Amino acid sequence: MTNPVLPPAMEPADLVWRDGVPESARFGDVYFSRDNGLEETRYVFIGRNRLRERFAELADNRHFVVAETGFGTGLNFLAAWAEWLDCRPKDDSAILHFVSVERFPLTRSDLEKALSFWPELAPQAAELIAHYPPLIQGTHRLVLAGGRIRLTLYFGDVLDAWRDLSFQADAWFLDGFAPSLNPEMWLEDAIGQIRNHSKPGTTLATFTSVGRVRRALIDAGFSMQKVPGFGRKREMLTGQLEVFGADSGASNRLPVAIIGAGIAGTTLARNLAERGVPVVLIDRADQPGAGASGNAQGALYVKLGVEYNAQTELAATALSFSQRYYRRWAGQFWHPTGLLQLASNEQEQHRQQKFLERCQYPPELLEPVDEELGSKRAGLKVTASGLWFPGSGWLEPAKACAALADHPGIQQVFGFNVRTVRSDGKGWTIESQEGQRLSAARLVIAGGHESASLNPANGKLRLKPIRGQVTCLPAEKYNLPEAVICGTKYLNPAMSGIAVTGATFDLRDNNPDVTLESHQENIDQLAELLPAVMGDHGPDASELAGRVSFRCASHDYQPVADELKDENGQEVPGAYLLTGYGSKGLTWAPLMAEYLADRITGQPLSLPEPLIRRVESSRLYPKPD
Fold it and tell me: I want to staple 490 with a disulfide (CB 3.0 to 4.6 A). Which of 204, 480, 486, 566 is the partner?
């Protein structure tokens, strides 16, 4: 008897390979045709949904959504991706969204083996495999082909996926196993959800011609017909809802003003600009990343909860997404050295033990290590066990903000100290202390701990500044690690002769100046956490440099990415709030930017409903008595 899989790990597909074709040992069905799986996909799904002509006819700056009921080997997705690139000009900002579900996902090695049979799809397959998420339950957004392709991949039950995800499909690939082998895939509830995620003009195609499937789709409002199948398959089904050629959403090219050029504002600005949305990026400083994002080094990590609930899922999803997101800048401002999270005291040892007893994560996301292995991975002797995150590392935050803001679709406006923001019902006017004015159709407040003072809505937002001082250690005087180590403090590897450690967590201190006391706190706690760092001589805090910044935290220490609402829960039209990242801004920023950009542009959402509730802005107002 095998041990049960603990959350959030997914039970992978159990494959049997026959003549080079993968079969499901669980369901006894093949993943693609033995004759020619790619040609079958092109015939059944690409051809019968008329995707080539619909892709070619789609207006610039629009998006097209394909939804699928079973991801399998990803062959259908890669085929759609290849057709999209073939039909759309390279400089077009239109986006293909592909939404798919898989209850038993393939491992990375099985995926690589299965897709190796299609050399014509090798470039797409290699990129998919490189970005393939760890097998943990929930929603994974993959941004591919430079942002022209966005895959929303849900690991879990299909009914849960369609209840939790927000999108409207233009075309459906009703793939998966035969209804007789996997009847849950074809329940009336599932087909009802398919209808809920469709619009007038949505088309569908499926291998099957089973009568109960056809009747259920007709009952759901699709006009259905049997057509010749592929190869030895005599018949298959196609269908559509009413009017063909429905609009795929507004182009959403109205300009967006973003106040705040830290990691929150610059990741969103870059995301929108790459979708073809013009952005005005505003900050009172003279360059990006001058505030809380201005430290020389910052670690990419989260502290995952013992229980796998919505809060933990959001953190794990954000970590996985950020690791993929920064990969394109490896060697520039992103340094994927790995990260060791130490069980630095008795309390943390007990917490990590409970965490490992109750949760199971794939080793590509994290794995437990003892003192010996932890020391080897980190390149420095440690005296406690811990969790090793191989895909994490550290960034140069200010450099990251500058690189992200460097895009022709982003107008940078610095030295602009915002005094007021006002709406005339059609757009927003932002006025500076010196009387300068800027206008935009939509507004995003991403001003960190100053966001509350910029709020144009009624009510006081529960946001607070937290002072954090970091300390810079000269590399020649200290023994420094090769990977990031964190516990009560964090310590980065050396960069340009220094390594950053810290930061203090000062809730009731608004002193903007570097203090000797904060340096001493950082050094004392680091010495306790990592005695090997100090070598033979004691540190002199008075000789050390550092920096103070003020992070922004919400009352519940969760991020905010949402339409701006007032104290009564009413939306402020055309305004959004993006803040509350606390000390984990580098990890939160990419996913929150992706999600808020989805909302601003009306595209399929990268977060499921339970996680959306975690980042709503209305929770920032105190509940009435």
Answer: 486
CATH 1.10.1610.10 for domain 15-240: no
Rounded Cα distance between 464 and 97, Å, is 37
CA distances from 498 to 262, 397, 551 (A): 23, 15, 23
B/e letters for 272-301, b = 16+ CB within 10 Å, e = fewer, are bbbbbbbbbbbbbbeebbbbbbbbbbbbbb
pLDDT at 625 over 70: no
pLDDT exceeds 70 at position 247: no
Phi, psi of 585 (to 5 degrees): -60, -40
Closest Cα to residue 106, out of 13, 199, 35, 28?
A: 13
The predicted pLDDT at position 537 comes to 64
Q: What is the pLDDT of residues 451-509, one digit of tens each?
A: 999 999 999 999 999 999 999 999 999 999 999 999 999 999 999 999 999 999 999 99
Amino acid 513: pLDDT: 97
Q: Cβ–Cβ contacts within 10 Å for residue 489, how many? A: 23
Task: Let me know the angle formed at the C-alpha of 397 by 263 and 281, rounded to the nearest 5 degrees.
Answer: 35
What does the alpha-carbon distance between residue 446 and residue 235 come to, in Å, rounded to a whole number?
Answer: 54
Domain 256-292+398-463+556-620 has CATH 3.50.50.60: yes
